[in-house]
Amino acid sequence: MLKLPGLIDPHTHLREPGGTHKEDFDSGTAAALAGGFTIVCGMPNTTPPIVDAASLIIAQRALNAKARCDVGIYLGATPNNIATARTLAGQVSGLKMYLNGTFGTLKMDAMDAIIAHAAAWPADKPLLAHAEQHTCGLAILAAHLAGRSIHICHVSRKEEILLIARAKDKGMQVTCEACPHHMMLSTEDIPRIGTARADVRPVLASPGDVAALREHIHVIDCFASDHAPHLLGEKDGPNPPPGYPGLETALPLYLELVRDGVIDLDGLIARCHTNPRRMFGLPVQEDTWVEVNEDAEWTLRPADTHTRAKWSPWEGARFKGQVARVVLRGVVAFRDGVVLAPPGFGRNVSL
Ligand code: NCD
Ligand code: ZN
């Protein structure tokens, strides 16, 4: 049995408010525990988006009532909430700027708004950016000009990881995350998965991009599933939304990176626990750990998962390494496929 600290996923979509048919704080945190995660941070691209005090309170109340593991909340940046965001900084785990199009309405094009948010957001609070290709350069520059750090979400391309590596070498305060799908899947997997189901933001990149991420794993500060649940009816429908559920497949895929020699076990713990805890100011969880049956082989069957998405780009895949037990604050929260922590057991770790 492999014993790991409670894993942290700093990038998930728990869909509440407004998207609870896809996921809510209850089902999303059940999926988290089943995947070995004891803290997940939720993105603000909900309906309404979490961009002001009124929308934040809706999310906080739902979290308090329904979360089974601990949850952090991010605020979303808009061109109009620069001052408001600052007043709410003490209640969230970071400010997310969407600089490229994706699911939801939160996208900032105006360069002056990006620069103004970077200058106004407290320097000791995380600033996160969905920033691909050119906007990755802009996000790093905006933070650098403000004399503050920036976290680049879900890096997927060689040009981005090389840019971030060079910025770090120059002493710029940049951190980044990578997702299992961008380290394991490429454009070559799209025919097998299906074009609509394989759609995700950032899109799956070339095999060369995947290789570059794995070769520059030392530049990647943390891992994130970007758990983005959508129903199969939506993925297979006329306007398929981008995104995959990821919380229940992330750890076995990270363990595959260990077996492939991309990282060692300490590197996994650093990227799924120590680093995200430090980077996002998350609390120590006492008496909390995850027991993994390292040798157990299993087949991913969507019906067995806890997310409401009930599909996966990895459905039918054979995995090695299975979460056997999760202990959260001394309480058995998950055991042998069953989530035991009740709704309301989870805490808001952004406060
Ligand atoms: C995310 C979603 O569905 O909310 N989709 C995705 O493809 N990753 C949005 C995002 O993280 O960009
Ligand atoms: Zn996301």
List the helices and strands and how they pair.
Blueprint: E1 2-5, E2 7-12, H1 25-34, E3 37-42, H2 53-66, E4 70-76, H3 82-88, E5 94-98, H4 111-120, E6 127-130, H5 134-145, E7 150-152, H6 158-169, E8 174-178, H7 180-184, H8 190-193, H9 195-198, H10 207-215, E9 222-223, H11 232-235, H12 250-259, H13 265-279, E10 289-299, E11 318-328, E12 331-335, E13 338-339
Parallel strand pairs: 2-3, 3-4, 4-5, 5-6, 6-7, 7-8, 8-9
Antiparallel strand pairs: 1-10, 10-11, 11-12, 12-13
List its traits.
351 residues; binds zinc ion; binds N-carbamoyl-L-aspartate; 5-stranded antiparallel sheet; TIM Barrel; alpha/beta; 8-stranded parallel sheet
Principal-axes geometry comes out as globular
| Strand line-up of the largest beta sheet | 2-3-4-5-6-7-8-9
CATH superfamily: Metal-dependent hydrolases
**CATH class group:** Alpha Beta
Helix content: 25-40%
Please tell me the CATH architecture by its name: Alpha-Beta Barrel
Structural class: alpha/beta
Strand % is 15-25%
How far apart are the first and last residues' alpha carbons, in Å? 34 Å
Task: Describe what you observe in this structure.
Helix 3 (82-88) runs parallel beside helix 4. The protein contains 13 helices and 13 strands. It has 351 residues and is α/β, with parallel strands linked by helices. The protein is globular and about 50 Å long. Strands 2-3-4-5-6-7-8-9 form an eight-stranded parallel β-sheet. It has a five-stranded antiparallel β-sheet with strand order 1-10-11-12-13, covered by helices on one side. The longest helix is centred in the last third of the chain and has 15 residues, at 265-279. The protein has one domain (2-339): TIM Barrel, CATH 3.20.20. Strand 3, helix 2 (53-66) and strand 4 (70-76) form a beta-alpha-beta unit. Residues 11, 13, 43, 226, 228 line the site of zinc ion (ZN).
